[in-house]
Amino acid sequence: MQGKVLRAAGPSPWALAVQLLMGSLAGVCTPGYAALSESLGTSVVAMSLGNAVTADPPGLDSIHFNPAGLSRLKGQWFSTSAFGASLAPTASFTAPPGFDIGGWKDDPVAGTTTGEVSAAVYLPGIGPLNAPLPAAVGGSFAISYNEPGSPWTFATGAYVTQGVGFSRKEENDPGRFDGRKVILQRLVYAAPSVSFKASETLSFGVSVPIAHQAFAMSTDMRMPNPMLGIIGKLQDAWCGDAGNALDAFFLGLCGGGMEGRLRPFNKIASASFEATAPMDPTVNVGVLWEPSDQFAIGAVYQGGSDTVLSGKYTFKAEPALDNFVRGMYASLFGPIAAAVVGLPTSIPAEQSGHMTMKLPFVEHVQVGVKIKPVKRLQVNLDAGWSNWEKWDKLTMQFDQNINLLMMARMFGLEDPSKLTLKRGYKNTITYGLGLQFQATDALTLRMGYEQRPTSVPNSAMDLIAPLPDLAIKSVGLGYVTRKGLRIDATASYAEGTFSVPADGSCNLNCSNFLNAIYNPYGGLDVSGGIKIRYFGVQFTQIF
């Protein structure tokens, strides 16, 4: 515990009700922001200690990090926080020696670099916020109650457990082919919690976070695939500039005119998806053993969920593919060839409707120890495991066959009413170190370091989740005023880089015949990185 805490007179039940309502609205209407990993930005104090707080859960943030820690909160506690975070992903694209996609060698993306991004958030009940934001802002709220002398403590709160959100500022940003705007956000708007103090040294706790899960993405699409390149070269050779009169008695490769010529590097379509799960509960179970003030051990299990989201989609196709298939079906033998590979008779300029998708929220286990080698210095050490292998693939189920996806039958796509994005993520173990120094009875200084090996291996890297290995460095402080108000502040910085050689990731840059969906940078070397900045402040009052 930090410093000396003075207790103020307790508020009336009506005042507590108003605080609960205002805090809940703050948590829901200003959704927070984090990286695609666990607990980044969830707690101001935890961030300052490298999220190594399982054996010393910070106040009401125990609801998330270890609900057994609620047993240490006597009386009535109230806390609220505000924070801002910015995400800066970058990527550059290079054509390696011998670059060739079906005879085409001049990819306009080669030699370019992605530009600046703005923050993007999802407002529950409203949708993605379209206004560009320099940083995402958010907040949390929590309240607890312990009857004097009772071993039971009750609490609830609203906070952010997971999310990523960015939007590319430039219209022609080369990153637009793998996510012009991406939002993945999980907001807990209620977390009924209870802890039980079994003895002077041992406590148990359970919380049930009830979350709003949101996913939104818009992207331009292209398929630099050898088959498209070869067909395009064949069209140019067979049709010339003025077409070929004999083509009507052949496959109809010229029937679409110049606009029906296939090009591997051209934009073929754009797509947008938006889906939510308004109520998705999970469970956190924790245990805390504190034999002395100098030593403690804690463990927590944060349950996962096979979350099913529902929402809407829109595909907008460029004219080239529609002109191409119409030309084939207008010829003598073209319909036979098109039917063999399952091509549609036309591709409408726009198709939209309803969709569902399964987006697992992965379970997480974390254990930690607290050691106080001297009276004023505390050292926290934690290790955590997450089951990211559940993200082997993500499937979107549409309410109809998508004609644009029928074109992908030639690449092995069997069902054009669904789109499966292979992920291939792996389980990870993270490590955290926190140092806390009690400078005075009122002032606490903190430092944190967290090593987060990426759950996204190089073979699965893309620009939708460009998350390499990250080392998070944090500093923070806590101060207790004479009236007992606790003020905590934290600043954190994380940076990581990746490099994927051509054909290194079949979520990004593979270039063989059967890897068209989805490798928008086929055959290119892609390198980049990400920077994350975070600042937060929290206020806690004990009544």
Defining key terms:
single chain; about 550 residues; mainly beta; Porin; 14-stranded antiparallel β-barrel; two-stranded antiparallel ribbon; about 10% helix; about 45% strand; elongated
What does this molecule look like?
With 543 residues, the protein is mainly β. The chain is 12% helix and 43% strand. The protein has a single domain, classed as Outer membrane protein transport protein (OMPP1/FadL/TodX) (Porin), CATH 2.40.160. It has a 14-stranded antiparallel beta barrel. A two-stranded antiparallel sheet has the order 3-4. Helix 5 crosses helix 6. The longest helix has 17 residues. The N terminus is likely disordered.
Largest beta-sheet characterization: 14 strands, antiparallel, barrel
> Which strand-content bin applies to the residues?
35-45%
Task: Name the shape in a single word.
Answer: elongated
Please give the CATH architecture: Beta Barrel
Number of strands: 24
> Please, how many helices?
7
Low-confidence stretches: 1-37
Mean pLDDT: 88
Percent range for helical residues? 10-25%
Strand order of the largest sheet: 1-5-6-8-9-12-13-16-17-20-21-22-23-24
Quick overview of this protein structure:
This protein is mainly β.
Q: Can you lay out the helices and strands and say which pair or pack?
A:
Blueprint: H1 13-29, H2 44-48, H3 62-65, E1 75-94, E2 117-119, E3 122-123, E4 127-128, E5 136-146, E6 152-168, E7 181-190, E8 193-197, E9 202-207, E10 210-221, H4 226-239, E11 269-281, E12 284-292, E13 295-302, E14 308-317, H5 319-329, H6 334-341, E15 350-358, E16 364-374, E17 377-386, E18 393-398, H7 403-406, E19 418-422, E20 428-438, E21 443-452, E22 470-480, E23 486-500, E24 525-542
Antiparallel strand pairs: 1-5, 1-24, 2-6, 3-4, 5-6, 6-7, 6-8, 7-10, 8-9, 9-12, 10-11, 11-14, 12-13, 13-16, 14-15, 15-18, 16-17, 17-20, 18-19, 20-21, 21-22, 22-23, 23-24
Helix pairs in contact: 5-6
